[in-house]
Design a protein that fits this description.
- The complex is a heterodimer of chains A (316) and B (100).
- Chain A is an alpha/beta fold.
- Chain A has two domains: 197 residues, no CATH class; 101 residues, no CATH class.
- Helix content of chain A is 49%, strand content 8%.
- Chain A is built from 13 helices and eight strands.
- Chain A has a four-stranded parallel beta sheet, with helices on one face.
- In chain A, helix 3 packs antiparallel against helix 5 and helix 5 packs across helix 13.
- In chain A, 48% of the residues are buried.
- In chain B, 49% of the residues are buried.
- Chain B is built from six helices and no strands.
- Chain B is globular.
- Chain B starts with 7 loop residues before the first helix and ends with a helix.
- Classes of the chains: A alpha/beta (316), B mainly alpha (100).
- At the A-B interface, helix 1, helix 9 and helix 11 of A face helix 5 and helix 6 of B.
Chain lengths: 316, 100
């Protein structure tokens, strides 16, 4: 296990420097919209805010591959010097990190966001997207206990969104949804009307997926327990005639995939992940989930897993 | 021997924790916690109740093993919100580190 103090100092310094946990320009992480012409910069009622979570997964995976190798070694202690990277220009750090991430992985996660946009458009959702207004929510700082850092960042984000007249927000992942819906009103005094993208999807045709083998649903903890919206994705699958099967521990009692431990202890992450994978494998069905952290983690375990948006997009 | 601070649960309110004294130490949280690790989080909650701040600071690293998955809060029969309590303790420890 890494010293949490080193991890908190590093992530806090990165967020202060670049407004994301990696210390690299957000414009380098957030490129998905370039492959999604027609969805950006158009007028609309609600802002699509990805919180940079899906886009960040290839960077998280690249970083944790190294953290995993060095955990509990004598090199782990040197992490305390990592915040010194704030003296290195962010585009240089960005170039370095870009070399460690795979292009295919970036494409894979960017494509999920394109699918979400397509689904929203087909459901006649009135939304707009501006890459410059797509901020990281700061949720990792909150989870790690860096209250001061989280509140400072959240106030920055809330102030900017309010400045642009944003009132309605569509989110794409459970962590950003929780931050904007529950934490921002409490810690910044600013409230938005926040909805996850799947709450706005309206399938026109039913029974498109008839005859398909069932999928097993892995509920993310934040959607299942904290926000209690597990039923919505199930209703969508039912509406599209896509059969699904419940696994042991689902909905409000879903099992954690171990993802939140990734930054402090990749070994602990593996231990929790292995247990959840056994539960999912018992269903014998391919897995569908709706959180980028869960998706990346389950992919790492070699499970046949895909994001809800990809599955819906294919069968819409 | 450990020093205890009976007012600690009160002090923790500044870090967003006001349910520590609701807990009656039934251990449901430790039983359902996916960490299966040394009576976590029950042990930490007990330390809060008796104000064993030295013990908390000595074992502070354990707090960051918590996945914040919320199963303990979901199943707590006393609505003591163990997940939020652990998060509050992290804030307390980070504050101590920064002030040290």
């Amino acid at each position: 296990m890494y010293n949490p103090r080193d991890i908190i100092n590093l992530i806090g310094a990165n967020v202060r420097k670049s407004r994301n946990p990696f210390g690299i320009p957000s414009s380098q992480i957030n490129t998905w919209w370039r492959e999604a012409p027609g969805f950006t910069r158009r007028p609309g009622d609600a802002l699509l805010l990805t919180g940079l979570m899906y886009q960040a997964i290839p960077y998280i995976e690249a970083t944790t591959r190294y953290l995993e190798r060095l955990e509990d070694s004598r090199w782990a202690d040197y992490l305390r010097f990592a915040p010194l990277s704030r003296y290195i220009p962010s585009f240089v750090v960005g170039r370095g990190l870009a070399c460690l991430t795979s292009r295919a992985e970036k494409k894979q996660f960017n494509r999920i966001l394109v699918s979400m946009c397509r689904l929203l458009t087909q459901s006649a959702a009135d939304f707009f997207y501006h890459p410059e207004m797509d901020f990281y929510s700061g949720i990792l700082l909150y989870d790690l206990g860096d209250q001061e850092g989280f509140v400072e960042h959240a106030k920055f984000v809330a102030r900017n969104l309010k400045l642009h007249g944003v009132q309605k927000i569509i989110t794409v992942d459970p962590h950003t949804t929780y931050a904007l819906k529950e934490l921002y009103p409490k810690y910044t005094g600013v409230s938005f009307d926040v909805q996850p993208y799947f709450a706005l999807l309206r399938p026109h045709q039913v029974s498109r997926g008839n005859g398909r083998p069932p999928v097993a649903i892995h509920d993310p903890c934040f959607y299942g327990r904290y926000l209690k919206v597990s039923e919505m994705p199930r209703q969508l699958l039912t509406d599209l005639g896509l059969p699904y099967t419940e696994v042991r521990n689902c909905g409000e009692f879903t099992s954690c995939c171990g993802g939140p431990a990734e930054s402090v202890s990749p070994a602990l992450n593996r231990e929790i992940l292995d247990r959840r994978v056994a539960e999912l494998k018992a269903s014998g069905a391919p897995v569908v989930t709706f959180c980028p952290i869960c998706l990346a983690n389950l992919l790492k375990a070699g499970l046949p897993v895909e994001d809800l948006a990809s599955l819906l997009d294919r069968n819409w | 021997m450990a020093l205890v601070n009976p007012d600690f649960a009160e002090e923790l309110k500044a870090f967003g924790v006001d349910t520590a004294l609701e807990c009656f130490n039934c251990g449901t949280c430790a039983a359902i916690c996916p960490l299966i690790f040394e009576h976590f989080p029950r042990k930490m909650i007990r330390y809060v109740q008796v104000g064993a701040t030295e013990k908390i600071l000595q074992q502070a690293q354990e707090l960051w093993r918590c996945l914040h998955c919320g199963l303990c809060t979901q199943t707590c029969p006393r609505q003591a919100d163990p997940a939020e309590l652990i998060l509050g303790l992290r804030r307390y420890v980070v504050d101590r580190w920064r002030r040290a």
